[in-house]
Every structure is written in C-alpha cells, then in structure tokens.
C-alpha cells in the first residue's frame, strides 16, 4: 500500500462492523417482541362466552313435528328377538342368542303389540321394550305372513300401554307429510319425516307372496324400522314400515309401508281367532284361458257351485255338459258390490275386503241377461 493511501468505507473492517451492529439490533428487537407482542399460542385470558341471541317462536312446522312426536312416541316399542341354540354333547343347557331388533306399536291396552312377521319369523322368544325402557316378554304371537303382519301379546300394566291412534289409508294423497317411527340400527324412539311418494306399490312378503296397495314414502327407513308406525300429520297410523329399496341395504329415499286399512282388517282377526278367517263365495271359477276357449271374454265364468255354500243357497249356477256333450255355460260374474270383474283373478281381491257373514251383491250374466244376486260369504277351509 502506498503512503498516501488510506482505508476506505468499502474495506473488510467496515463490513464486519456493519454485521455486528445488525446482529445487536436484531437481538434487541427480538427481546422487545417477546415482552411486548402477544404470545404466539393465540391464547386470550380475557375470552368470554358469546351472548346468546333470543330464539323467538318455533316455526309452525317445527311445532307440528314436536306435537306428533310427543303424542306418538309412547305408543312405539322395540322388539328384540332371540333364538335358542340346540343342545349338544358338550352343553346340556339351552342358550338364547340375539336374532335381531325391530320395531312395533301398541294396539290396545290389553297388551297386544303389532309388528312385521319378518321381525319375529323363526324367533323363539321376543322382548318388548316400551318407551319408558321397561321390558316385557311376549307370551306368544300370531301372524299372517302373506301381508307381513304379526301380533304379540305382553302382560303389562294398562297405565304403561298407550295405543296408537288409527287413521285410514284409502284416502291418502301423494304429497302428504309422513312420519316414520322406530329403532333404526337399534337407536330407539327415532322419528324421521318425509312425504307419501307413491301409492299402490307391490312388494314381496317373506313367504314370496305379493303384497298389493303398499304405500311408498321418502321418510328415512333403515334396518330396525321394520314394524314401526308410519303416521300422517295428524299423528294417526296410516301404515307399518316394512321394507326399503336400496342397493346398500340402508336408506336410499324409497321406503314402503303396509297400509293401515289392511292392518285394521287383519289384526282383529288374529286377536280373535289366532289366524285369518278367509271369506269364500262358494264357487269354482274357470281360468282366463278356459273362459276364452268357451267364448267368454269378460267376467269370471262359474264352473262349479259348492253344495251348501252361500252361492248355492243364492241360486248361482255352474257350467254343465248335457248328454250330447254340449257345454251349457254357467253364470258369469261381471261385478261384485258394484266393482267390475274382468276375470277370475279379480274376484279374490274383492272378497278379501269383506268378512265372513257379509252379504254381497253379485252381478252375473245369465242366458244373455244381467241379474243381481245376494250372496252371504262363508268361511274358507
């Protein structure tokens, strides 16, 4: 370095001084932030509960839902079924294991409980749990598998038994509000809402018979809801939850319920007789194919009249063949109590709407003329 040269600000020493000063300032700033800035945890020791805003009146729909629930819930029961394991060489005691859980509802204060047949099918015992969680063993049950209806009976204090209110299903309209009650997945006293989605559906019972006139609803129905009541907005029974249409086995928006008009016809018979007493007209009818072969295009041709039956006493006539082999057509039923009959398949559904002892007006074609005959229904074998 020459004698007349001096270190400038850009020299190595000045750079070190600059970094040292910067470090000191950073340290002082960090200490200040630590003491004077809120802590990084985000905690605030002065936090208080928010002020609750006034709810105001419940909406009319909410009040209606609450009213239906409070009125109907005491009538809904849980049905727990058990099955017994067979004895074997290693275990001489009979053991019961759970079979399933379904729902039901109280029919009357005599202890009769209504549920689906498939809920108690092949069960050895059933326990009924009431809304207050008291339990009672069902002493026995009677069933009508064709309609998936069963009736159980328990011995419980009348004060604990709150019968469901009964409505009607023949006058339902698509779009009406529905309430489904039951124990989906074992969660008792559950209520869901929906509407009547469709009427007149057909489903298959557990014994492979068709159940006609079924109610379709959008109210959520899941496993465990079977046997529970379906109510209208007045809190009246309009059906019994029975099945769902679902790829997964859980609710998919399509549920089915047996109409209350069918339940109200079947249950009293099960309670009275332990079985369904089927009415009969007392005639044997030709198949649709045979009728057409004989030239009968409309109506149900009577092939034979059962002796001593209501039809025989009313003078209905069957089909005969004379000595020359000529077929003499019998009476052709064209209407029953004003309901048109197109073929033999139409007769039984109409008869099932009536009971033994009812007198029906049978309209027949006889020798080309229409006649009305009064027939008293007998009991089918």
What key attributes describe this structure?
Thrombin, subunit H, 3 domains, single chain, 381 residues, 23 strands, six-stranded antiparallel barrel, alpha+beta
Gross morphology: elongated
* Portion in strands: 25-35%
Task: Report mean pLDDT, rounded to a whole number.
Answer: 86
Helix/strand structural class:
alpha+beta
The CATH architecture of the largest domain can be named as Roll
User: What distance separates the N and C termini?
Assistant: 134 Å
Brief synopsis:
The chain is an alpha+beta fold. The protein has seven helices and 23 strands.
Report on the architecture of this protein.
It contains seven helices and 23 strands. By secondary structure, it is α+β, with helices and mostly antiparallel strands. The chain folds into three domains: 69-160, Thrombin, subunit H (Beta Barrel), CATH 2.40.10.10; 177-273, Trypsin-like serine proteases (Thrombin, subunit H); 279-379, Pdz3 Domain, CATH 2.30.42. A seven-stranded antiparallel sheet has the order 5-4-1-2-3-7-6. A six-stranded antiparallel β-barrel has the order 8-9-10-13-12-11. Strand 9 and strand 10 form a beta hairpin. The longest helix is centred in the N-terminal third of the chain and has 25 residues, at 12-36. The protein is elongated and about 140 Å long.
């Amino acid at each position: 370095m020459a004698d007349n040269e001096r270190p400038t600000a850009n020299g190595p020493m000045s750079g070190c001084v600059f970094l040292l000063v910067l470090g000191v300032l950073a340290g002082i700033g960090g200490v200040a932030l630590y003491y004077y800035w809120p802590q990084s945890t985000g905690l605030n020791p002065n936090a208080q509960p928010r002020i609750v805003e006034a709810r105001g009146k419940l909406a009319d729909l909410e009040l209606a839902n609450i009213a239906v629930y409070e009125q109907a819930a005491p009538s809904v029961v849980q049905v727990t079924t058990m099955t017994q394991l067979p004895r074997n060489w290693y275990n001489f005691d009979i053991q019961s294991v759970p079979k399933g859980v379904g729902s039901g509802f109280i029919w009357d204060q005599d202890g009769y409980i209504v549920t689906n047949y498939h809920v108690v099918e092949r069960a050895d015992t059933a326990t009924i749990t009431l809304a207050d969680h008291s339990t009672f063993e069902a002493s026995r049950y009677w069933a009508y598998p064709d309609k998936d209806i069963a009736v159980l009976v328990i011995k419980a204090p009348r004060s604990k038994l709150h019968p469901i209110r009964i409505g009607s299903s023949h006058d339902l309209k698509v779009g009406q509000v529905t309430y489904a009650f039951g124990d989906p997945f074992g969660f008792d006293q559950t209520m869901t809402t929906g509407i009547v989605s469709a009427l007149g559906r057909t489903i298959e019972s557990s014994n492979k018979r068709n159940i006609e006139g079924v109610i379709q609803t959008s109210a959520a129905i899941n496993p465990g809801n079977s046997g529970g009541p379906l109510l209208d907005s007045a809190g009246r029974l309009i059906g019994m939850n029975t099945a769902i249409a679902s790829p997964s086995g859980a609710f998919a928006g399509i549920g089915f319920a047996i109409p209350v008009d069918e339940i109200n016809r079947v249950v009293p018979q099960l309670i009275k007789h332990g079985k369904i007493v089927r009415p009969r007209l007392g005639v044997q009818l030709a198949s649709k194919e045979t009728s057409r072969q004989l030239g009968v295009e409309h109506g149900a041709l009577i092939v034979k009249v059962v002796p001593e039956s209501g039809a025989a006493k009313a003078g209905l006539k069957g089909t005969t063949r004379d000595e020359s082999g000529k077929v003499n057509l019998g009476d052709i039923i064209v209407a029953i109590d004003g309901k048109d009959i197109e073929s033999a398949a139409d007769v039984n559904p109409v008869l099932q709407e009536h009971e033994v002892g009812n007198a029906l007006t049978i309209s027949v074609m006889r020798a080309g003329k229409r006649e009305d005959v009064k027939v008293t229904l007998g009991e089918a074998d």
